[in-house]
Specification:
about 400 residues; UDP-n-acetylglucosamine1-carboxyvinyl-transferase, Chain; alpha/beta
Length: about 400
């Protein structure tokens, strides 16, 4: 799908979409509960649809409403299962951990990009358990059964592995401990998982800054719960305020534990010269911050290495697309420099690289210059209503 965006200014009030991160976690907890849970304020993005599909594969029953989902938890777990994860890294890593904890022989299907992402933490755990981890052309097969105990996890790869274990270890017949090997990146996402677990009656506690203590023989309790607004996607709406617009974003929880809440501080830094921003704890903000740096004063970003293993190689593709706006950049192993320059209207069509955050970031800049972007349908992954929302704010989208 190609979208044309004309030069235009955003003004008005818009409600932030529901948090994808919290919706994932609440749905998983609901699926593991004994009884019926209701999760409200759900935005049925492609990633959330993948998680709903996977809890059905686990044995849960799902009833979808307009913006809510009722989940009847699993009464008996399957011995074998197939999980279709589409392009959702959270979904695959959460459910792979769950399958390992339950000893399910499982096939995990997903997009080509997802299947090539690193799974080294689970591979090592499976190896230690004497199990099977096989990569095939269009799926990954796992067959292992975790025993309660101590798990040492490298904490600078992805918090999704840690969350996957946190979901299932409380159900095992014995206490467990996760020892995180520093540096601990994306700690906020671990805390979101702990918040979700606590909401459904499961207690996990930090011991020092690096250890997680998990009581075994726990039970998830069914719950009716509302998903809070999403700071990650709200960043794309609030960004218009730094591009000459006047936008009020509602529906955000001020006391939220979401790490991407930091986007507000980052935008303020980018409005000044010579900003240096560490995104190691908020890699999902990388594309929008790079776009804003291009529109404002340039910036240096450190902690960028994990941008390589997202839906696209986000650092490289953002620099490639920014060059079409006549913005120069430099890429290093764990650092990206966006040079200060004057945004010029692209003479060629921008590419979305099948990455929702790339599409939304480039759309912000096109509101300043005008232009076209291909593969705009990628927004369905996390924010299917993005173009409709910015249209309501006055951005001319054709």
């Amino acid at each position: 799908m190609q979208v044309t965006i004309n030069k235009s200014t955003a003004k008005g009030i818009v409600k932030a979409p529901a948090s994808k991160s919290m919706a994932h976690r609440y749905i998983v907890c609901a699926g593991l509960s004994k009884g019926v849970s209701k999760v409200t304020n759900v935005d049925f993005s492609e990633d959330i649809k993948a998680t709903l599909s996977c809890i059905e594969s686990l044995g849960s029953k799902v009833e979808k409403g307009v913006n809510y989902v009722k989940v009847t938890g699993v009464t008996e777990f399957p011995k074998e299962a197939t999980f279709n994860c589409n392009e959702s890294g959270s979904t695959m890593r959460f459910f792979m951990g769950i399958a390992l904890g339950l000893g399910i022989k499982a096939k995990f299907y997903g997009s080509k990009t997802l299947l090539t992402r690193p799974f080294s933490i689970y591979e090592e755990i499976i190896k230690n358990e004497g199990g099977v981890f096989e990569r095939h052309e269009d799926y990954i097969y796992v067959d292992a059964k975790l025993k309660p105990g101590t798990f040492k996890i490298q904490a600078n790869i992805s918090s999704q592995f840690i969350s996957g274990l946190l979901f299932i270890l409380p159900l095992l017949d014995g206490d467990s401990k996760i020892e995180l090997i520093p540096p601990v990146e994306s700690r906020s996402y671990i805390n979101l998982t702990l918040e979700a677990l606590d909401s459904f009656g499961v207690k996990v506690s930090w011991d020092k800054d690096t250890d997680l203590i998990i009581k075994g023989n726990s039970e998830y309790l069914p719950k009716e719960i509302e998903v809070e607004g999403d700071y990650s996607n709200a960043a794309f709406l609030d960004a218009f305020n730094f591009l000459g617009g006047s936008v009020e974003v509602t529906g955000l929880k001020e006391t939220s534990l979401q790490g991407d809440k930091v986007y507000k501080e980052c935008f303020e830094k980018l409005s000044k010269e010579n900003a240096t921003i560490d995104i190691s704890d908020c890699p999902d903000l990388g594309p929008v911050l790079m776009a804003m740096a291009a529109a404002l004063n340039g910036a240096t970003f450190i902690g960028t290495k994990r941008l390589k293993i997202k839906e696209s190689d986000r650092g490289s593709v953002m620099c490639a697309e920014l060059s079409k706006f006549s913005i120069d950049s430099e890429i290093f192993d764990n650092e990206i420099i966006i040079k200060k320059g004057d945004l010029k209207a692209p003479k060629e069509t921008l590419l979305g690289h099948n990455d929702h955050r790339i599409v939304m970031s480039l759309s912000l800049l096109l509101s300043k210059t005008g232009g076209k972007i291909d593969e705009a349908e990628a927004v369905r992954k996390s924010y299917p209503g993005f173009f409709e929302d910015i249209k309501k704010l006055g951005i001319e989208v054709l």
